[in-house]
Amino acid sequence: MKIEQIYTGCLAEAAYYIESNGEAAIVDPLREVQPYLKKARLAGATIKYIFETHFHADFVSGHIDLAQQSGATIIYGPTAQTNFPSHIARDGEIFTVGELTIKVLHTPGHTPESATFLLNDKEGKPYCIFTGDTLFIGDVGRPDLVQKGDLTMEDMAGSLYDSLHTKILVLPDDVLVYPAHGAGSACGKNMSKETFDTLGHQKEVNYALKAGSREEFIIQVTDGILPPPQYFAKNAAINKNGYESFAEVKEKGLVPLDPEAFELAANQTGALVLDTRDPQVFAQGFIPSSINIGLSGQFAPWVGALVTDLEQPLLLVVEEGKAEEAITRLARVGYDQTIGYLEGGIAAWTAANKETDTVSSISASDFEDIFAANPAIQVLDVRKPGEYDAGHLDMSIPRPLDYINDWTNEIHPGDTYYIHCAGGYRSMVAASILKARGADQVIDIAGGYAAIKSTGLPRTDNSCASKTLKD
């Protein structure tokens, strides 16, 4: 028996490879399927099944491409409806993979079709559960993504409680819990950095599993849920209805363009220029109106949160050799319209005497001096609300990057804004977007709040105070 967790940190996503006696199964595969095919080929195994725990909202699954290339059957839980060939399993239905059995446990709550897959070893002993977004390490799935008809978020939370208590918590304590996500995913609010655990330990430490009643559980899991990123519903629809093959997406996007061709393509198509370089490198010179979302961070989720149109043509500025990685990570969240990248990068652009722009970036100590001279400056804190509440500059205005499309209309193009996040990644994203939208006087505070804390600037800890932008 072989069970391998394939964890992708930039998405905080876990897929699984299961193998026994020459047969294999994949749970919740990513969009690019060659790694799974390669694992099976090297082991001399045939991929028999592709188990999907639900219609994922935060990434596009590789289920369709993998089924077409391997001949495997796609398995969903009860009530799922797809527009491609799949097997909709009954609650309790059992599948064999070599000497192993995998039992379908219908566990609605995160979504109506959510299923947990219980793997029994060759002796028939429960060994592990693949819980998808039903049960995480330290948390449970958010119940607000699928609300149909008269069903409310509270109704879905109640269903989740029932699923956990009738299907999962009755299993032996030594059963391993293998979820679909870890810390950093927007699919939960309190996920651990650990990516698997025993069920018994989760009963002891997971706040949601310790709720004293169904009513208490509903209150706890629905409290403090932020609105989901805008791309979630779109990705769920893609996973249900189908998509263009990843090979075609990569071929269409992996097109090197010299500066003239790049500029022409941008003008003719209205493409968004997405610059994926390091934030501080970007700040020193970039194509005007381009947006910086660094490949070194949670690139794909931030594109998904901020670029509202999946059909938006994209042109990439990347570091040498990074074009394919960028295209792959975009496709993972349904952004399939990359039409090329700048060959030779920004160096080729400047060598062709093309116009560039910059973002001013100052140190925390320099910012301290500026504030001392002018305490009336406007400071935007683009971290998440919970980060702001835990500690912030007294003069700062909370404006989370996640919702920049909602608050940019408050920005006055002629004003000067100092922007910071936790470490410098998100603040440069925000600065680039604001500059592209006409706010020219945006200044990044390098190192973010981590650097600011080493200064003597006035700060408040554990505060929920809010401020508004000056008129």
Describe this structure in words.
With 471 residues, this protein is α/β, with parallel strands linked by helices. The chain folds into three domains: 2-234, 4-Layer Sandwich (Metallo-beta-lactamase, Chain A), CATH 3.60.15.10; 245-351, Oxidized Rhodanese, domain 1 (3-Layer(aba) Sandwich), CATH 3.40.250.10; 360-461, Rhodanese-like domain (Oxidized Rhodanese, domain 1). The strands form five sheets. A six-stranded mixed sheet has the order 1-2-3-4-5-6, covered by helices on one side. A six-stranded mixed sheet has the order 7-8-9-10-11-12. The chain has a five-stranded parallel sheet with strand order 13-17-16-14-15.
Quick summary of this structure?
By secondary structure, the protein is α/β, with parallel strands linked by helices. The chain has 17 helices and 24 strands. The strands form 5 sheets. It has a 6-stranded mixed β-sheet with strand order 1-2-3-4-5-6, covered by helices on one side. Strands 7-8-9-10-11-12 form a 6-stranded mixed β-sheet.
Supply the CATH superfamily name of the largest domain. Answer: Ribonuclease Z/Hydroxyacylglutathione hydrolase-like
Characterize the biggest β-sheet. 6 strands, mixed
CATH topology of the largest domain: Metallo-beta-lactamase, Chain A
Low-confidence stretches: 463-468
Q: Report Rg.
A: 24 Å
The count of β-strands is 24
